[in-house]
Queue: 4 jobs
Job 1
Amino acid sequence: MKLGVVILAAGQGKRMRSSLPKVLHRLADQPLLGHVIDCARALSPQEIVVVHGHGGGQVLDAFAGQSDLRWAEQAEQLGTGHALQQALPALHSADQVLVLYGDVPLILPDTLRQLVEATAHGFGLLTVTLDDPSGYGRIVRNDGGRVQRIVEQRDADPEELTVREVNTGIMCLPRIELERWLSGLSNRNAQGEYYLTDVLAMAVAEGFDIQVCQPASALEAEGVNDRVQLAALERAHQRRLAERLMLDGVTLRDPMRIDIRGRVTHGYDVEIDVNVVLEGDVQLGHGVRIGANCVLRNVSIGDNVEIHEHCVLEQAQVGPGSKIGPFARLRPGAQLAGDAHIGNFVEIKKSQIGRGSKVNHLSYIGDTDIGEGVNIGAGTITCNYDGANKHKTVIADNAFIGSNTALVAPLTVGPNATIGAGSVISRDAPQDKLTLTRAKQLSLNWKRPTKEK
Ligand code: UD1
Ligand code: CA
């Protein structure tokens, strides 16, 4: 069978009260629709068609350049059946159609695989059983337990309303029949819409046996209608990611207090304290420890690195055995070879830090190459910007920079050079020498003024 996935994403999402189309609201920092597309891709279908409508331009822009996606416009939202109809011309080769929803982001590939396999030549439906089924279409079964039809809440009679098994909307249908069924839909119902759900009764009338699957968790079928639900699904998703990490060997001090907004790869025995945010592509080696309240965005962290509390690392590489923070900031292009110490209130931007070098307190290091075994004293500033251009500082192996030094770039400090504390260094400092700029220290006779009585 050739599988085509259609994702319905044309609804406006009024209850979001937003100028952004609902499917572009973000869960784990990715648009809702992106989660559904990723799930669809995991099934390796022949084709994926997204039905867009409200704010369609914005939706198309958000996924520009993703050439495996096809788009169908539903200019007017006349119902889920009508939406699917708009997708048919874009389905070129599929003979089995799986319907997903752009605002149902937590659906899992395994669940869909089961549904697709169960319905090779038939009609498959994903249902869930809820304590409170209100709002959903109810699954109506006959005395033999066979599914007969779906009745929408607003069209249901009191007995039907007591049914707790509901339609998730996710279905898998045969292409040829689907085309025929959709063209036979009417909008004579409480909402005046063309309901996709009505094709089920047509299939039953033609003798199709409906294959029903249920997801492992009802969360998979939950949709986002307002920002309260969005936040609830965000938490559920984070909980799921946290559990996956723990089962993969990461210790989380509190799985309720971590946020993963991207892809994390890791070695064994990583330990993460509370309120840590991991964004983008985050690689953690073996034995990495991350203290409370850190943000790591697109970083690669080597084995046995310790990142203490309150650090922000972005587009940085930290070599093995390094110690960072507390209160350190590694900005884009910070590259630490290994065994480095970066201490409190230190900012490092676009700089290499050689093996075993230390920048322990209150420093700014920008556009700088630091060799191995260098010690940068407290309060050292590389003055890399003259107001128009950025300039480079080079500090060779085993140099020692005294505290409160300003290094005015461009500048080279030679190997094993020492810079005296409090210096403003604006020319190269030679190898092995002590270089300093310092006003002479004076001691004068002096009487402090006293207050008149
Ligand atoms: C639909 C189902 C209901 C099911 C529920 C699950 C129908 C008629 N009813 O109801 O049985 O229990 O989902 O959440 O299908 N959409 C379009 N174009 C349209 C209309 C909708 O793209 O013209 C999209 C929406 O963006 C949304 C999805 O389809 O993602 C569902 O639409 P919605 O109107 O919310 O359906 P429900 O009334 O919730
Ligand atoms: Ca509706």
Job 2
Amino acid sequence: MKTLWQHCHVATMAQGKYSIIEDAAMVTVGSLIEWIGPRSQAPTADYAQVHDLQGAWVTPGLIDCHTHTVFGGNRSGEFEQRLEGVSYAEIAAKGGGIASTVRATRAATEDELFASAEKRLRSLLRDGVTTVEIKSGYGLDLANERKMLRVARRLGEALPVSVRATCLAAHALPPEYKDRADDYIEHICNEMLPALAAEGLVDAVDAFCEYLAFSPEQVERVFKVAQQLGLPVKLHAEQLSSLHGSSLAARYHALSADHLEFMTEDDAIAMAAAGTVAVLLPGAFYFLRETQLPPMEALRKHGVKIAIASDLNPGTSPALSVRLMLNMACTLFRMTPEEALAGATQHAATALGMGDTHGSLEAGKVADFVAWQIDRPADLAYWLGGELEKRVVRHGVDVTV
Ligand code: DI6
Ligand code: FE
């Protein structure tokens, strides 16, 4: 079905720039963009539908490329403790932190996990998200990681959003492997990853490279197995300390290295050479009251692509709005609104291995877009959350909620 969308301005985000077309029109056929350009040059055709977008600004659908949307319970109690002076690391050492979410996630049924995650995901969708990445990592054994990944898949079938499922079995050490981190890594490599991949539940493999999680050597063993299975890798790196996980990720041509507050210029050089995207997570930076800023100048200087994501998770970033993250990327990391928007569109798509089909509005790409009733694209990074009037189109179909 050929559809014409007109009376709008478009920030196409091609090559990660606004690349604005004023008084634009777009032709979609089925789920794809067939043509986009100035309205005066729109092809004449027998359109099945013509939509008047009433002067809206159209952008690609937002892409949240790093979330832990599926989890049991929540940790607002720990939030209170931290405000009384207890650190994230201290809470983790006492069996709280990730371990408490692991207990709650293991105790929850698949349907319970689905129901709680669906609410959080709907909140992201109301904010203009059309693609989301969801990680496992609170199950930490085969049955419970499978349960989380199945929920991620089901969310993608039930809601109008494309879901990429990432296996983060190497997120934390499960209690039954206490003091046996190498054995747990071996279990991930020999049992969990091969089984979950064979079941078609895994689009990418992630790990947490940190002194309170897994060492670069342990991460590398996981990466080697991912590579054998033909799965792309990503890494939580340099969030709390500098172990050069981001350079390791680059050596394995990772799609992305994420967090990165403590990365060095050499890490940036390695990432740029490998095309590994830097995913910055201002929600976690803010929520942990981190003071070490990611090295924006080094990232820019070496041409590393920068994505922005919510890191939606119960411990360090209970963030339900990607637009709020855009604002925080600007205010906290001094990114421009254009860089921030590129970070939640084209560069986020690249961080998910979807850069050729998603993330910008160009002929041949998937017709995922949002028509916002705003004055200019910078409004998207300007308002602090809330709801903006808009229409959301996914795969060429209006899915506005
Ligand atoms: N870094 C984070 O910020 C989250 N995971 C990670 O590796 C925190 C997850 C949690 O605290 O539940
Ligand atoms: Fe994370």
Job 3
Amino acid sequence: MNIIVTGGAGFIGSNFIFHMLKEHPDYRIICLDKLTYAGNLSTLEPVMDNPNFRFVKLDICDREGVYKLFEEEYPDMVVNFAAESHVDRSIENPEVFLQTNIIGTATLMDACRKYGIQRYHQVSTDEVYGDLPLDRPDLFFTEETPIHTSSPYSSSKAGADLLVLAYHRTYGLPVTISRCSNNYGPYHFPEKLIPLMIINCLHDKPLPVYGEGLNVRDWLYVEDHCRAIDLIIHNGKVGEVYNVGGHNEMKNIDIVKLICKELGKPETLITHVTDRKGHDMRYAIDPTKIHNDLGWLPETKFADGIKKTIQWYLDNEDWWQPIVSGEYQDYYEKMYKNR
Ligand code: NAD
Ligand code: TYD
């Protein structure tokens, strides 16, 4: 089995590559990644010498380059993680989100049509469903929940999902889509809530909580997400969407307090800053379908996963220190100064 994994130098894609090389040692994995600010080749160092692994620096929007790679590798499957993934950046500059997330998805699927494929899998997000109100804890996102996006990021992901389903109906492309809730774990880029708070805590820097911090996210340990995708690409039904989430809803403020506690830092570091524009209130996945159809269940409890994650950041300063001392500094200044 030859699998192209796009965006494999990013957070979830790299965890997925490690998972696949371990669980399927006879598979060949080809990582295609543009290495944007969010892609980090050092993350893939542990597998660079694996004879079943190949890294190719390429933009998923580069049609010629993508077709050439298909001619070299004739993949059986494509799993598309490559995306601009940060909501705050999408609010500052939507264009690159439309380019990578929508045009890039179409380019990959065109290559799949041209050269043939057993499965094209689109890694999507629960954010395509918009948000749920805080006062209706009985409501969850199912696969039938209407698409109703809030941010340029989620709109671009929803646009891609619609294209994927259209390529299935129109051209018969064998696709699946997974829509997962917020992930956390090793190699998470420090612009996102959990790693940002851990690293700021370690530096005794203010912890910038947007608004009151009452927004709820449904957190899933990254390895559980990787297992879900592995199941879907092997046993999932073509043309179907699968929601992935572990019923682990937490308020942002409670997560930040927990990180302070685990690291022995005072809650006085918490600083409430101007809220995100269009900030989604609550995400909550109903994972009944993937549980009933594919037998998937999350394995890592949040209490354990967050401890493991904090420990990983403590043990792997070599990974994150070069990131936060580079252009990330300018990003942080721009996004958080005067907020
Ligand atoms: P990430 O930002 O950490 O990584 C994205 C990767 O894609 C990087 O390696 C980057 O270099 C690469 N990339 C970006 N543009 C590219 C392009 N044009 N061509 C080739 N490569 C490109 O993102 P992540 O958090 O790992 O998310 C991966 C996928 O999972 C995304 O599609 C995202 O929408 C989805 N998702 C993320 C979460 C989450 O909590 N992080 C939850 C659900 C779904
Ligand atoms: P984030 O990790 O950006 O993921 P998403 O917006 O895709 O859910 O943010 C998670 C939550 O944390 C979200 O409600 C916004 C909030 N947040 C903060 O309060 N402060 C921050 O500095 C960041 C990055 C996020």
Job 4
Amino acid sequence: MILVGTESDIKLFNEDGTRIDGRTVEELRPIKIETDVLNRADGSAMIEWGGNKIMVAVYGPREAYPKHTQDINRAIVKARYNMAAFSVDERKRPGPDRRSMEISKVISEALTSSIMVEKFPRAQIDVTIEVLQADAGTRIAGLTAASVAIAAAGIPMRDFVVGCTAGKVDGHIVLDLCKEEDNFGQADLPVAVLAKSGKVVLMQMDGDLSEDEFNQATDMIMRATKRINQLQREALTTKYSEAIAGGE
Ligand code: CDP
């Protein structure tokens, strides 16, 4: 029996010890974040992270509707993660599926812990995450961009949410898996934290890691989130200084 695309026939490491896309084990893919890309939304952001292209729009806080969903003590954060039909190699069937509902739920929870939701009783904050092009790590890239879009909307936050993935590929622990590594690697660990405190607000794992490997992976992720948070901050300050320079 011939199995196409199993671990045995895909080489994920080059002879010189670099990865399939030429990166070292702890090297991030290029990341670009831009804010205020949509005029109608209260806040927005576009992130390009490796081959991922993801757009985020934020609306609110506004009165939660239907009324029975209102919480008298705080705002509810409704994140909706969606993959465009053309975002992946094989056409993605439009509409929510189990995967997108799970991702929307974990992203909503992660964002809730970063926003001062208690300031907006009975309100709702809508966060729409549209994946236009997917290349592994979309939940983390979408969440990282969502935190920037929420800040751009002027919604009070305790801290940024910032994330990264690490995983195991050909027996090596590596940072920020690309599509081939995600598909044919042995483990994938997406993690998101609050930038200042380092408190974990999202952690999922696909595959198996030993305790040592897990520690190595989370150490890499924590170092990477510091750099990515810098990019989140720069995306906002660049926009702000451009506005001042333009006399807005
Ligand atoms: O994107 P993320 O790593 O957060 O989630 P995943 O479920 O581990 O998916 C990994 C990658 O598989 C995605 O980023 C897509 O590139 C790809 N994928 C796909 O091609 N078709 C799907 N229906 C779902 C995912």
